[in-house]
Structure formats: C-alpha cells, structure tokens
Design brief:
- With about 150 residues, the protein is mainly beta.
- The chain contains 1 helix and 8 strands, in the order ββββββββα.
- A 4-stranded antiparallel β-sheet has the order 1-2-3-6, with no helix packed on it. The protein has a 4-stranded antiparallel β-sheet with strand order 5-4-7-8.
- β4 and β5 form a beta hairpin.
C-alpha cells in the first residue's frame, strides 16, 4: 500500500496523512505510525492538534490500542503500536480540536480512519487447515512442514 495514506475526516475539515514503519507490519514487532494533520484547502500543517488515536480489530471490533488526549505542537506526531496477531485493523484518528487550552476550536475536528493489514503473508495464505482459529505458532517453519 503506498504511503502516506491520506484520509479526510468525516466532515472534510482535516486531512490526516498516515504512514508507518516498517512498511510490512508483522505481529510482535513495534510499528511506528506517523500522523500529519493538514488543512485540506491549503495543504499546510495544522498546529496544536488535540486528538485520540485508536486501533481496533476489523473482525471483532476489539480495541488493540487506545491513546487519548494527545497533542501535537507541529501538526505531526508519532505513535508506536505492537500488534499481537495478523489481520485487518482500523486505524482511527479522532481530532478533538485545535488550540493549547480547552475549550478547543472545533472548526477543524472529526474522525479519520483507514484499514491496514498486519502479517500480509499469513493473512493471504489459504492452504493448510484453518481450524486453529487465532492460534499462532512460534518458529519459522511456515508451510514447509506440510505433510
């Protein structure tokens, strides 16, 4: 998936550019997300953004990571997340408003979300039994052990 992913808030007041390292996200490894908040009409960074950052499992809605009351002075911020399992996940940035002190200016607010895939190789594998559910096996054998 090309990066960054540009996601507009539900009310079109902010564009959130979301990128991550490493590009191929694997379970058990730290993933660093970079969020850049931009004005959709000018493309300029929005400073003093107050926001929440959440990642949920797309299949069952379970919250993987939830960070609230975050603030970026510059309009760009980084958050580190570690995924335990492969799958598809919703990445959600909820912009509360702008400013240093409450009440925040809500002119630029709203929710931006996109879907990412973790463990692409594992999620795409269709051979072998799927009766294991969400169980994962330690080791590097992969499909080499099929009999």
């Amino acid at each position: 998936m090309p990066q960054p992913v540009t996601v507009a808030t539900d009310n079109q007041s902010v564009n959130v550019l979301i990128s991550w390292e490493p590009m191929e996200i694997e379970p058990g490894q730290d993933t660093e997300f970079t969020l850049d908040f931009q004005d959709p009409s000018s493309g300029e960074s929005i400073s003093h953004v107050n926001y929440n950052f959440e990642i949920t499992d797309q299949n069952n809605g379970e919250t993987i990571q939830s960070m609230t009351d975050l603030h970026t002075h510059s309009g760009s911020d980084e958050q580190t997340v570690t995924f335990d399992t492969p799958g598809s996940f919703n990445v959600v940035a909820t912009i509360i408003g702008t400013g240093l002190d409450p009440p925040f200016d809500t002119t630029q607010s709203g929710t931006a979300q996109t879907v990412i895939t973790v463990g692409q190789q594992l999620a795409g594998a269709t051979e072998g039994g799927t009766t294991g559910g969400n169980a994962t096996t330690a080791g590097t054998g992969g499909n080499q052990t099929d009999l």
